[in-house]
Structures are given as structure tokens and as C-alpha cells.
Amino acid sequence: MIGTTRMWSTIKTSFCEHKLSSDALVVPASINPNTATAATYPSLDTQLKLLQDNIMSKLKLNNTVTSQNSMVANHTINQWHFHNSVNSKENPQIIETPTLLLHGYAASSMSFHLTFNKLTNGIRDLYAIDLPGNGLSQTPDIKLPSSNTNKMTFNKDHSRFSMTKQVDTLKEKQVLSDYEDYYLDRIDQWRKDNGIEKFNIVGHSFGGYISFKYAITHPDQIENIGLISPLGMERNVYSLNNNFVEAKEYQVTQEDPSSIYYSRNFKVPTFLFNNQLNTLRYMGPIGGSLAKRYINRAYVNVPGTEYHDYLYHIFYKSDKFPRTTISNFTNMFTRNLLAKDPILDNLPKLKANKVLLMYGDHDWMNGEAGYEMATELAQTYNYKPHKEVDFVQVPHAGHNLFLDNPNFFSDQILSFLK
Questions:
Q1: Which of 2, 7, 163, 331 has its CA 20 to 30 A from that of 315?
Q2: Is residue 60, in this structure, part of any structural domain at all?
Q3: Tens of pLDDT along 343-375?
Q4: Secondary structure (H, E, C), the chain
């Protein structure tokens, strides 16, 4: 998720005014990605492929590293695989466990392009994929009922609330699980297609939420997990795990993200929440101007124009932002950008050997919630601080810390995984 709160604010000021995100490439393994066209793979966004190739052409990898771009998971998931021919016997600092990078919402593997050089020098097999409905990965159809939460009523200043209608919790949890499986099943198929038994997973924002959910549903497949400014961390009043009494009034906290009474006044306007990046397209040339202005301001630290051009295509120039992707998101999160099944509610299920929480020093995501996770893992679940669980703040970085300070980010990831 690329600065979603700020961008939605920008759109909101211009339209209703505005906000949103990024992406990468896709072709079956039997098709050469350098020659693939819309004719060989009908749904391929050839312009996006060209923009991605332009970014990757600037990459200067070590001469021991090779890169390969292919389609996996029944030709639905685009992946980049970087292999370093140097092994840990030749260099004890090399990390042998395969490592997967998962991007944020409305983004892609290209989000990490500034880190590929340094990470591939220390990780023998590094993978970065585009989640389904993102980048050049496919968007398989999904038909599921809407996921609902208990109906809450708040007083005027949002300081108190009561539950006015309780849903069938078991039924709604299953529906929510089905939406999450849209991503989890394809990640597991990616793992199988690459012949990987166990791997490290590093996920950013929405990808952090998905990484955590994969880790707790496939514990035997995960070695270590890095959550990079993850979405969906906070416990909250909308969680399907709560057991509130109907009609009873409760006090809201907007300060403590570890509390089941946590909420926030901020809500994405309904139209923007349900249309997201497509809102920019509906606005015509004004939407294009807003997208350019946002990209130039938010990605000022990214050198060159290649990534800016790439994002502009994602935000505005491509035909549309997939309706399935929007539906998945709006059924997993509330308009407050709070998870219906928060990460903090599920800590007892986590079995990863080591856990890293990382945020930018001026990150809009709730770093206090991440710090709470690190604290709970240490105090309640016996993770050793700084050895098995750690919390790191990246200097001179916002939500997209791997773009704002790629060297520091990469060093921290390598140090964590060793």
C-alpha cells in the first residue's frame, strides 16, 4: 500500500478530493518475457511490461547473480527469481533459505527494485512476486458473499459505542478466510512450483498482513517473517474475535492499538473506498494531474523517472484497477483501514523462528501497534528480544521505507535473516 491515507486525502480534496498505489510483469513459463505480446498472452499489459523492463534494465547485479522472470501458480503469478551462484560454504554470510518479498496493496514486485542489488548479494535465492490482481499477475475471478462485521453505533464525538446487531461470527470468519485464501492458496502454489519446502517471508503493508496470515496457516513452511509497516495490525472494535454484549455501551480508545476498544475517526469516503484507483480515471485529465502531482511528491527520493512513469501507468493510464482486487480489500478491511481479523488477535498461532517489525521514522502506519506485537511476543510468547523478535525504525523514511532508504532497509533485512 503506497501512502494510501495521504493519497485518499488528496483525492478527497479535489473530487468529493484523492489517494492510491503501484505494480510489475506476467507471462507463462513457456513464453519468453522479452518477446511476449498481447497476442501470445491476451491479458498482458504490454505497456506495463515495457515500463517494468525499463526499470529492470537499470539494475546492476553482481556478476554472480542471475535473474529470471516467469509465470507460476498455473500461469497466474508473475515472479522474479534472483539466484546467487555463491553458496554459504564459499561465503558464510550467504543466506541459504529462500526469501520471498511481498509488496503492498495496489503495488508490485517493482516496489523493491532499489533493494534487489544489495539483497541478492546476501541471499542465495531471492524471490519477488506480484500478488494476484496486481502488476502483471492475473486476476482470477472470485464469487463470495460480502464479509460483515457486528454493527456498531457511536456517539457524536466517537468516544463511546455499542453493538446494535451481532453477526454469525463463525460464518463471517469463514467468508473472511475465503477472501484471504485468494492470496494464500496462490502463494502456496508458488512455493510448490519452485520446489521450496521452507522459506523466509518479508511483506510490506497489505503484503505484511497477507504474509502473517500465510505464516499462521502454513507454519511448517515459514522460517522467519519480516513485517514491514504492516496493515491490519491493530486490535479494534470491528474485529470478529470480540465478544461484546449487545446494547451495552463501551468506551472507545484512539490511543491504544492493543485494545479491543480501539477505533479511529478517520474513514475513507465510501465512493473512494469502493472505487479506489478507478476514481482517478473517472476524473479524466484532473485525475491524471493529481496522480502526477502525488507521485512527484511521494517518490521524490526515487532516482530517475522510470519508476515514476511506471506508477503513473498503474495509477491512471492502465485500463482499470481490477474490481476483484477492490472487492477483496473492502471485504477484509473496514473504511477505517482496520482489519476484521487483526494480526494482534492471532499472535498465539505464530510459529516463525524469528520476527522483525520495521517502520519508517515518519510512517503513517501505526508503529505503536507493531511495537506492541514485538512486546507481546517477548513477554507472552517467549521470543527473545533483539534475537528472535525485533522492532526497527528506519531513519529518513516514510511508509515506503525500502524506496526512501533502501540501503538501511536492505542491511536490516540481511542482518535479521542471518
A1: 331
A2: yes
A3: 999 999 999 999 999 999 999 999 999 999 999
A4: CCCHHHHHHHHHHHCCCECCCCCCCCCCCCCCCCCCCCCCCCCCCHHHHHHHHHHHHCCCCCCCEEEEEEEECCCCEEEEEEEECCCCCCCCCCECCCEEEECCCCCCHHHHHHHHHHHHHHECEEEEECCCCCCCCCCCCCCCCCCCCCEEEECCCCCEEEEEECCCHHHHHHHHHHHHHHHHHHHHHHHHHCCCCCEEEEEECHHHHHHHHHHHHCHHHEEEEEEECCCCCCCCCCCCCCCCCECCEEECECCCCCCCCECCCCCCCHHHHHHCCHHHHHCCHHHHHHHHHHHHHHCCCCCCCHHHHHHHHHHHHCCCCCHHHHHHHHHHECCCCCECCCHHHHHHHCCCCEEEEEEECCCCCCHHHHHHHHHHHHHCCCCCECCCEEEEEECCCCCCHHHHCHHHHHHHHHHHHC
Question: What is the arithmetic mean of pLDDT over 14-31?
Answer: 32
Condensed to tens digits (0 to 9), the pLDDT of residues 157-191 reads 999 999 999 999 999 999 999 999 999 999 999 99
Task: Indicate the number of domains in the chain.
Answer: 1
Assess whether pLDDT exceeds 60 at residue 18: no
Residue 371 belongs to domain with CATH number: 3.40.50.1820
Angle between helices 206-217 and 169-193 (to 10 degrees): 90
- What range does the domain containing 386 cover? 4-140+183-231+273-417
Q: Which residue has the higher pLDDT, 73 or 42?
A: 73
In a domain, 260, yes or no: no
pLDDT tens for 24-64 read 323 333 333 343 444 444 456 899 999 999 999 999 999 99
262: in domain: no
- Residue 178 within any structural domain of the chain: no
Q: Given this model, what pLDDT does residue 88 score?
A: 94
